[in-house]
């Protein structure tokens, strides 16, 4: 192991420590690590900060602004009314329909949207007690449904991360189909929906107490836009999605179509420039752009290839691809859950898995896709934002929580691994 490798490892470990301990604001540790990589001569400044000119990051930043605009549409109010109507009917059919409605809403907001699951759980906690469908059955199932899009059109963040880690690891896999990546998400969501249906009778049946967030959820209202502005906002969203889908055919134009959509939203005053600036400079974007430089630095020292070859030798040449991908998914999701740092954990283990696949002569696309998505699919412990809020609002005992979440955890990862390997054969 060379001196540059050792220095790169020390800087990377230091970055991970800062991310997991939250010693610095989210998004800042990778930037500091990039500066240190340049200071110690591991890479030049252009390489270290090359993530900010990465076309995928440009696309992601624009899409973050579009999501902010969508939250101003009447969709939110429609969503609220639909949930209240479903819950008031009670029974198994209402239970399933409520879960599906939440999953349809997730399709617009995307996987892991904090604003969406907080809004969803806040609304669910205000639904009056109904013996046919008590709140304890609603909170658990519909709460986790806020992490699973039924129509996965808004997968830009995860798709961008997959592309970024593959490029940073030097994996020559060509253009990755956004449609195929969306189908992987769909397989995962359908597996979750199937488990939710099967788990209906396993969920506890009790009322939930009123919580402090109830008043906030009831009083929260979205800005009312004129009909023509709403229509143009939906058009801007659709235009951006079409650009991402057709990117492999139309080239760089596909990357900038979300940016043009944001320009339209600014021109018609759906968003002001401050809102756009805050969205495109969000901590998630800083994190994503920063770690690309770190991954490039690790690759330039030969460390990534060395780790991949070492792991490959340990696993042997006859390792089943399914077991390989599934093992990395478990490792990533477990540590993401324990540390609360999804992106940080994904950016650590995805390059290792990619290098391992390359060393074994396997196409790493399936591994990259599954590992990135797995970072948002732990939730078996109530120590992260979403599961902690679900357990608290639902007034669940830990054993009741585990009866739902532990089977859900393994079912989701098995489906995710199978879906990734089906769409991206190794």
TrEMBL record:
Pfam families: CitMHS
Membrane topology of this protein: Multi-pass membrane protein
Keywords: Membrane, Repeat, Transmembrane, Transmembrane helix, Transport
GO cellular component: plasma membrane
Listed transmembrane segments: 6-24, 31-49, 55-71, 92-109, 151-173, 179-200, 231-247, 253-272, 284-307, 319-339, 346-376, 406-424
Domain of life of the source: Bacteria
An individual GO BP term: transmembrane transport
InterPro entries for this protein: Cit_transptr-like_dom, DASS-Related_Transporters
Residue ranges of every copy of the Citrate transporter-like domain listed in the record: 16-371
Protein name: Di-and tricarboxylate transporter
Organism expressing this protein natively: Proteiniclasticum ruminis
């Amino acid at each position: 192991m060379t001196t540059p490798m050792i220095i790169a490892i020390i800087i990377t470990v230091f970055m991970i420590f800062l991310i997991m301990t939250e010693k610095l604001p989210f998004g800042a540790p990778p930037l500091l690590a990039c500066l240190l990589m340049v200071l110690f001569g591991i890479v030049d400044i252009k390489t270290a900060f090359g993530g900010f000119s990465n076309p995928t990051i440009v696309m992601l930043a624009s899409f973050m602004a579009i999501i902010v605009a969508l939250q101003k549409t009447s969709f939110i109010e429609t969503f609220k009314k639909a949930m209240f109507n479903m819950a008031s009917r009670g029974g198994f059919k209402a239970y399933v329909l409520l879960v599906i409605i939440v999953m349809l809403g997730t399709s617009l907001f995307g996987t892991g949207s904090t604003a969406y699951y907080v809004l969803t759980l806040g609304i669910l906690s205000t639904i009056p007690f109904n013996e046919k469908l008590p709140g304890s059955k609603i909170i658990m199932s519909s709460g986790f449904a806020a992490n699973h899009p039924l129509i996965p059109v808004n997968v830009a963040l995860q798709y961008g991360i997959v592309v970024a880690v593959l490029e940073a690891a030097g994996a020559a896999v060509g253009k990755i189909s956004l449609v195929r990546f969306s189908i992987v998400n769909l397989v995962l969501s359908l597996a979750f929906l199937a488990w939710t249906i099967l788990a209906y009778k396993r969920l506890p049946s009790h009322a939930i107490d009123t919580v402090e967030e109830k008043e906030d959820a009831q009083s929260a209202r979205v800005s009312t836009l004129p009909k023509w502005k709403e229509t143009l906002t939906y058009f801007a969203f659709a235009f951006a999605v079409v650009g991402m889908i057709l990117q492999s055919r139309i080239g760089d134009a596909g990357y900038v179509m979300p940016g043009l959509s944001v320009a339209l939203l600014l021109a018609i005053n759906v968003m002001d420039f401050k809102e756009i600036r805050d969205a495109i400079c969000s901590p998630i974007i800083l994190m994503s752009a920063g770690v690309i430089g770190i991954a490039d630095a690790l690759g330039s020292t030969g460390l990534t290839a060395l780790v991949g070859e070492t792991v490959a030798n340990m696993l042997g040449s006859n390792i089943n691809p399914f077991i390989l991908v599934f093992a990395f998914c478990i490792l990533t999701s477990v540590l993401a859950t324990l540390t609360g740092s999804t992106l940080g954990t994904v950016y650590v283990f995805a390059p290792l898995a990619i290098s391992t696949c390359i060393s074994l002569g396997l196409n790493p696309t399936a591994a990259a896709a599954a590992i990135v998505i797995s970072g948002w699919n732990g939730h078996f412990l109530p120590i992260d934002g979403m599961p902690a809020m679900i357990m608290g609002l639902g007034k669940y005992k830990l054993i009741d929580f585990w009866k739902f979440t532990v089977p859900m955890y393994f079912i989701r990862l098995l489906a995710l691994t199978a879906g990734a390997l089906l769409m991206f054969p190794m």
